[in-house]
Amino acid sequence: MAENEYAMPPVTPHLVVDGAAKAIEFYKAAFGAEEVQRVPAEDGERLMHAAVTINGGLVMLMDDFPEYGDGQGSTPQALGGSPVVIHLEVADVDSAWKRAVDAGATVLMELADQFWGDRYGQVKDPFGHTWSLASPKPE
């Protein structure tokens, strides 16, 4: 296998959303995202590519373009959900949780101390993607 020649991490989530520009603003408010790149589509409305960093990791995102595929949208809403959970391991999960919920994330699994040693919970963003937030329980 060839070594990674680029600054891009070897594995990077690439989220498809309805409203990528709004998603960037939500991710800034909810997760402290920092915008890295924004490439508008030819229609001037949608984003064909964008990238943010969240918690030190790169997340790419784009608007849905069903016209370039089989006509089927590929957002979680168009597909009836997503089996993928994006995990954030943070130093202070209680503060991170409050920030995400205050920004408009929907609680799926309440933040609680778990048997495996983490304080953990899950939220869904307004674009249909599920995020888990955790930090190790203090000993």
Automatic annotation (TrEMBL):
Domain of life: Bacteria
Pfam short name (any one): Glyoxalase
PROSITE patterns linked: VOC
Residue ranges annotated for the VOC domain, each copy included: 7-136
InterPro entries listed in its UniProt record: Glyas_Bleomycin-R_OHBP_Dase, Glyas_Fos-R_dOase_dom, VOC_core
This protein's name: PhnB protein
Species assigned in the record: Hoyosella altamirensis
Phylogenetic placement of the source organism: Bacteria, Bacillati, Actinomycetota, Actinomycetes, Mycobacteriales
